[in-house]
UniProtKB/TrEMBL annotation, chains A, B:
<keyword id="KW-0072">Autophagy</keyword>
<dbReference type="InterPro" id="IPR006285">
    <property type="entry name" value="Atg7"/>
</dbReference>
<feature type="active site" description="Glycyl thioester intermediate">
    <location>
        <position position="554"/>
    </location>
</feature>
<keyword id="KW-0963">Cytoplasm</keyword>
<comment type="function">
    <text>E1-like activating enzyme involved in the 2 ubiquitin-like systems required for cytoplasm to vacuole transport (Cvt) and autophagy. Activates ATG12 for its conjugation with ATG5 and ATG8 for its conjugation with phosphatidylethanolamine. Both systems are needed for the ATG8 association to Cvt vesicles and autophagosomes membranes. Autophagy is essential for maintenance of amino acid levels and protein synthesis under nitrogen starvation.</text>
</comment>
<comment type="similarity">
    <text>Belongs to the ATG7 family.</text>
</comment>
<dbReference type="Pfam" id="PF16420">
    <property type="entry name" value="ATG7_N"/>
</dbReference>
<dbReference type="GO" id="GO:0000407">
    <property type="term" value="C:phagophore assembly site"/>
</dbReference>
<dbReference type="GO" id="GO:0006995">
    <property type="term" value="P:cellular response to nitrogen starvation"/>
</dbReference>
<feature type="domain" description="THIF-type NAD/FAD binding fold">
    <location>
        <begin position="336"/>
        <end position="582"/>
    </location>
</feature>
<dbReference type="GO" id="GO:0019779">
    <property type="term" value="F:Atg8 activating enzyme activity"/>
</dbReference>
<dbReference type="InterPro" id="IPR045886">
    <property type="entry name" value="ThiF/MoeB/HesA"/>
</dbReference>
<dbReference type="InterPro" id="IPR000594">
    <property type="entry name" value="ThiF_NAD_FAD-bd"/>
</dbReference>
<dbReference type="InterPro" id="IPR035985">
    <property type="entry name" value="Ubiquitin-activating_enz"/>
</dbReference>
<keyword id="KW-0653">Protein transport</keyword>
<keyword id="KW-0833">Ubl conjugation pathway</keyword>
<dbReference type="GO" id="GO:0015031">
    <property type="term" value="P:protein transport"/>
</dbReference>
Length: 697, 697
């Protein structure tokens, strides 16, 4: 008699499985390579009609996995049955290759065996193993399936009649109806005829009760057969046979098997039922003795080359490049949470909308560091055009941007960000920020323009969470400082970050937040309100731009200063956003020793998960040194004092106009003018920030 | 009688004048606005024939200036005469506008007058004034000429005959020959006929001697006339008349004037001499009395709109944009020397040829900072391709570079630099650097490839002055460390700069130079030889790449770390290059206080003009802190010890091959293996650089 050949499972992996695995790996599994439960499904085998030869061609016995395979209580699709398995994803290709595959396979086979002999549960009969390595940088997935199946010795043979039409022996429409009636699909089932010739079915687990009064010859065991091959049954039959031989050896050396192959009742008179029945015998067989241990198992899947080896799914070519880029950028950030900083709140950073006032050297470098942190909304404001000296220092511009008079810097910078990362939400606004000491000409048109410019800046600040002051003059920082500080009391909290350059020095600072209920420490006492850019000044900002010589007009700086200051400003923002008190986080002590101690002990909530959140940092390239500073808010400050903020809130544009037009207005308003008269010494304390001269320190 | 009208000078500024002024301003004048001597020239007036009307149209009386105008002993072109003047260039447009033009003009007129009455020298009769403001960022030049000419009261009148052909009175070919025979061209000259009817000429200065026996009626005064207008003589005649009236009042109230207008002898019979003669009278004139002071002067040039006001030359549209970019980039750097650092040797930096090993985050940022310093030769080596996660962190790549599998990084980075600045000499080489612990497969092809790769790297290092180690693994730095250290003894000195990143930390260092005669301090004692990247290690570099998990494969860092480390490395190089001892400059003390003191006192030559030149800098973003370190060279170092260097120099590639293939070779060679056995403790001192974990510090 011919030996029964079984058609092995063929894995069918939907790309959604890999997408889901990618997400799981990055967000949940991280470095874990613990085994995961996974569910697959298979259905009745299908064949296609070959028009040329007129023959039916059987399709492979697909075991299908997809994104749903990771769902805990996944129900298989209609007409399919579930198979459960184990997924083991390795961290490196080397681990994947070096994995002890024999041990893994045997473990899985043992699980199947244990389920048979200990619980008689059939749900684990088609267990499978999937080992993977996901190269998330290249979207290449290495994988290998195993479908452990027990080997029968000697082999099963099929009677001379072979597989014959089951419809000649059973009323298949009744079986079909009963299978449909199950609450969950039965991959295996028992069949018997009653006295009137009707059939009834039952789950395999009820073998003893169901066949209690049925002679072995009248027993038929059915299974959902994924094989459409008329001569060879599918893989699930192997473990079904092993199950029966192990548990019911006395009655199973000859078995009538129904290969259930009808997902639908034949619809046309010409069509016929496809299910087949055959009689299988295992010759001279000693029954499988569970006490002797489980039988040998086989079942590693061959790869498309027909060899025992892993397969590769390369998803990169089929993915939308823009989406690939977005995932790649996220990946780099999420990896931080795998090992180093599980507590890092990346969304808090990436969802922060940043307004960059100035698209010069600082603005370009700041935007790049923000993109590195995954920030998705970046808006530039600048009034200039790209000039020939810009590209070598301003990393969003190139030579072509300088031609024909130069592109507008803000719009050009925004467009560059999109070229770098299409997923960014970037925009640019050409806008001249009105400044104290730069009077607005009294013509109605000039006034209307200034009013419109102020309104536009107010609106832009409203629409963002952070304002970076990255201009090249002292007085241009005044208006956004006032607006930003005023908003600090409204529902919207604006973080103002400031970076300014000298020749080989820089200042990076966060403006202190206006008093608020949030601004108390753990001890209930109010935090010291931190100062703004103008808090150390005893003169109001005024015109420093007119009458500048060339070396004062150009920012004459050591080229390394801008990237250092810009990156420091962005990292200060990142640390600030991670601090539970955010904008109101207190400044750490300024001596390095004390700060180091604070970092070690995390005393009084000074630390964010990223470390200290200083108030001001001054850097000195001639010593390669950075110095933290803390400065309190000054009640006569022309930028953030309550006097100024309230005048702005009460009078609006008319107050601002006074500040622009009248060189003395702000000093009179704040009372600085009286202080000023107290001594000529005051005159020497010129603001250093744009002077480009370290001697002023 | 009709009043004589004089045709004023028209300035003709060659663009070369502005280019020369630009160079002078940037390199020599800097912030100075002191008056400069300048030379112009004018020639005999020219006219063109209007074919439509058949008339001759006189061209303007051009006074021409160009780059030669700044030359000290400039000779005017053939057929032209010189005029000297004063150029005053202002630093700002505001100063230019606010200049006291009346005072400047009167000063110039006074100089002319003083020359007349004190020296009788005619060379200053056509003095002129040029005030300018050069907007070097936009290549716009604002300028205004004045040609002071004295006003005669009453005005000069011309006889009824007007200007008639001089050839009817004089043998002009003789005058032409005599003018040609002068050693330097005569703008003004005296003419008299001798008894035989021949003419002779003499310089104006010899009036008294030459005309000693000539009656006033027989005297004729000639001048080179820039006016081609037949009716109106050119501007130089005004001051000639004033000269004559002031010095020889008795004989000059009626004057015969020859307008010399023949640069060539008429060549064809139909052509005729162009020079004219006329008799001028100043009616009822009291002679100019020098004792009464100089007469009123006029002569500011009108602008093209016909108004008294400055002109603008906008050179930007006519300049080659690539050259514009090169000048703009240089300008930003040279401005450093105007005020802040006159001693800065920019050429020393810009002529340094830099080899960047690694075109990733560090490589991209390093190249940008180098470009900012004006470095013109930048070469990248990388073996990778641009991937989707790169552009947001690596500022030479954009989204489009990632498509179709990604461009080769080294070549793509080099092309980007050219897009930023076309004047750069950048190139990229896709090359995998062989590494210890990564054995070369024994096949002849693999061996040949490794040998070729080593040879290529050796050649590249030979062709550069500085090697930056910017890779992402410890062991890939070994080969260039050895080659670079070995070259340190050859005629070629290689500076090796190293930057490595952790999650929120970085290391930037310069490798110490091999012992040399240069490596002694001012006291004659040898400097301490500084260590290399491997000097602190007690195990040889080995395979750290295989079997890395995703977060180890990707450089998981705070995005701000790379720009800070890269800029710091470049600034360290800039400081090093400015130090008189360069590569051999000693490291400053490591405590900030001591370093600060060193900076202040410039003790023992520790300072460069840019400040300190540390050996190592370690940065910590969690504290926003930078720490200088000094490490001595280690005599068992696997990277730079003499044992290793000599083995490399003696055995060449075969020694390197042992290091690549045999994990223990370097440790045995240096004797580290014996040390290693001394204690298991050693095992814990794992190199931290690529660990991405600050806990290892």
């Amino acid at each position: 008699m011919p030996i029964v050949q079984f058609v092995p499972f063929s894995s069918l992996v939907q790309p959604t499985l890999w997408h889901k695995l990618t997400d799981l790996k990055i967000d949940v599994l991280k470095l874990s390579d613990a085994a995961l439960p996974i569910t697959a499904s298979y259905s009745i085998g299908r064949s296609v009609h070959d028009r040329e030869t007129g023959q039916e061609i059987a399709l492979p016995c697909n075991l299908s996995v997809g994104s749903e395979s990771f769902e805990h209580d996944h129900k298989p699709p209609h007409g399919s049955v579930s198979a459960t398995g184990t997924l083991k994803n390795y961290n490196t290709i080397e681990e994947f290759k070096a994995a002890d595959k024999t041990a893994l396979f045997n473990q899985e086979a043992q699980d199947v065996w244990n389920n048979i002999i200990k619980t008689r549960d059939t749900s684990q009969l088609s267990r499978f193993l999937l080992i993977t390595f996901a190269d998330l940088k290249k979207y290449k997935y290495y994988y290998w399936f195993a479908f452990p199946a027990f080997v029968s010795k000697p082999a099963w043979e099929i009677g001379e009649e072979g597989w014959r039409k089951a419809s000649e022996e059973f009323e298949l429409s009744s079986i079909h109806a009963q299978l449909r009636g199950q609450s969950s699909p039965l991959p295996y089932f028992l069949i018997k005829k009653d006295a009137s010739g009707g059939v009834s079915i039952a789950p395999l687990e009820s073998y003893e009760e169901f066949y209690a009064s049925t002679s072995p010859e009248a027993q038929t065991i059915g299974f959902v057969d994924p094989s459409a091959d008329p001569n060879n049954p599918g893989w699930p039959l192997r473990n079904l046979l092993a199950y029966l031989r192990a548990l019911y050896p006395a009655t199973t050396s000859t078995l009538r098997i129904l290969r259930w192959k009808d997902s639908e009742v034949p619809s046309t008179p010409n069509a016929s039922w496809k299910s087949q029945v055959g009689t299988l015998k295992v010759g001279d067989a000693a029954p499988i003795d569970p006490a002797l241990g489980r039988p040998t198992a086989v079942g590693w899947e061959k790869n498309p080359q027909g060899k025992l080896g892993p397969r590769v799914a390369d998803l990169a070519p089929m993915m939308d490049p823009t989406r690939l880029a977005a995932q790649a950028v996220d990946l780099n950030l999420k990896l931080m949470r795998w090992r180093i900083l599980p507590a890092l709140d990346l969304d808090k950073i990436s969802s922060t909308r940043c307004l960059l006032l100035g698209a010069g050297t600082l603005g370009c470098y700041v935007s790049r560091a923000l993109m590195g942190w995954g920030v998705r909304t970046i808006t530039f404001v600048d009034s200039g055009k790209v000039s020939f000296s810009n590209p070598v220092r301003q990393p969003l511009f190139e030579f072509a941007d300088c031609l024909d008079g130069g592109k507008p810097k803000a719009e050009c910078a925004a467009a560059s960000l999109k070229k770098i990362f299409p997923g960014i939400n970037s925009s640019g606004h050409t806008l001249a920020i009105p400044m104290p000491g730069h009077p607005i000409p009294p013509s109605p048109a000039s006034l209307a323009q200034a009013k419109a410019d102020v309104a536009k800046l107010e609106k832009l600040i409203d629409e963002h969470d952070v304002v970076f002051l990255l201009m090249d003059s002292r007085e241009s920082r005044w208006l956004p400082t006032v607006i930003g500080a005023a908003k600090g009391k409204a529902s919207l909290i604006i973080i103002v970050l400031n970076a300014a350059l000298g020749f080989d020095t820089y200042l990076v600072m966060r403006h202190g937040a206006r008093a608020s209920s949030l601004s108390t420490g753990a001890d209930g006492k109010p935090h010291q309100r931190l100062g703004c850019y103008y808090c150390n000044d005893i003169v109001a900002p005024a015109d420093s731009l007119t009458d500048r010589t060339l070396d004062q007009m150009c920012t004459v700086t050591r080229p390394g200063i801008a990237p250092i200051a810009a990156a420091t400003a962005v990292e200060l923002l990142a640390s600030l956003l991670q601090h539970p008190e955010g904008l109101y986080s207190p400044a750490p002590p300024t001596t390095t020793a004390a700060a180091g101690a604070a970092l070690d002990s995390d005393q009084e909530g000074i630390n964010s998960v990223l470390g200290l959140v200083p108030h001001q940092l001054r850097g000195f390239l001639n010593q390669f040194r950075t110095m933290p500073l803390v400065g309190a808010a000054y009640d006569r400050c022309t930028g953030c004092s309550e006097t100024v903020l309230k005048a702005y809130e009460t009078e609006g544009f008319s107050m601002l106009l006074k500040a622009f037009n009248d060189a003395k207005y702000l000093e009179t308003l704040t009372g600085l003018d009286k202080l000023f008269q107290e001594g000529e010494d005051a005159l020497n304390a010129v603001d250093w920030h744009e002077e480009g001269d370290e001697d002023d320190f």
